[in-house]
């Protein structure tokens, strides 16, 4: 299955975000704008760095989207490392979740696990 087919299938299985607090970074420039907004607005946020070819990422992304509905005060961002190659060079493992508070990165989680992710989101919300 090609990457574009995987991405399309993944988007079809992703739950609807009810609060408008979920964004997808579509390019390096877009991700930089999102990061600048997180830093300047000091809004609590979580960024999910993943890849369309990563099986674990594909499994946790629908849960990430579902959880965005449970934490409306958090900003949720999904960044595909292949679509944002310059700004995601520091990412060594997918999925990687980075948590921001008051414009600063305060936590990081590697790997999946919906319960682990839920607990971290609750901690940082």
List the helices and strands and how they pair.
Blueprint: H1 3-12, E1 22-25, H2 28-41, E2 45-50, H3 55-70, E3 75-80, E4 96-101, E5 104-110, H4 114-124
Parallel strand pairs: 1-3, 2-3
Antiparallel strand pairs: 2-4, 4-5
Task: List its traits.
125 residues, alpha/beta, 4 helices, 5 strands, Thioredoxin-like_sf, Thioredoxin_domain
- Number of alpha- plus pi-helical segments: 4
Ranges with pLDDT <50 over ≥5 residues? none
Rounded to the nearest angstrom, the distance between the terminal CA atoms is 37 Å
What assembly state would you assign to the polypeptide chains in this entry? single chain
Largest sheet: 5 strands, mixed
Order of helices and strands: HEHEHEEEH
Helical proportion, percent range: 40-55%
| Helix/sheet category | alpha/beta
Task: Please give the number of β-strands.
Answer: 5
Radius of gyration: 13 Å
Taken as a percent bin, the fraction of beta residues is: 15-25%
Order of strands, main sheet, comes to 1-3-2-4-5
CA-based shape? globular
Q: What would the average pLDDT be, to the nearest integer?
A: 89
């Amino acid at each position: 299955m090609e990457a574009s087919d995987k991405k399309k299938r993944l988007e079809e299985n992703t739950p609807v975000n009810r609060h408008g607090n979920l964004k997808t970074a579509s390019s390096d420039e877009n991700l930089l704008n999102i990061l600048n907004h997180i830093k300047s607005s000091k809004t609590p946020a979580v960024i999910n760095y993943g890849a369309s070819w990563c099986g674990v990422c594909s499994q946790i992304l629908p849960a990430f989207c579902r959880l965005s509905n449970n934490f409306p005060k958090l900003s949720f961002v999904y960044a595909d490392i292949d679509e944002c190659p310059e700004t995601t060079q520091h990412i060594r493992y997918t999925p990687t979740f980075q948590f921001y508070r008051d414009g600063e990165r305060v936590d990081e989680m590697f790997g999946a696990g919906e319960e682990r992710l839920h607990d971290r989101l609750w901690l940082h919300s």
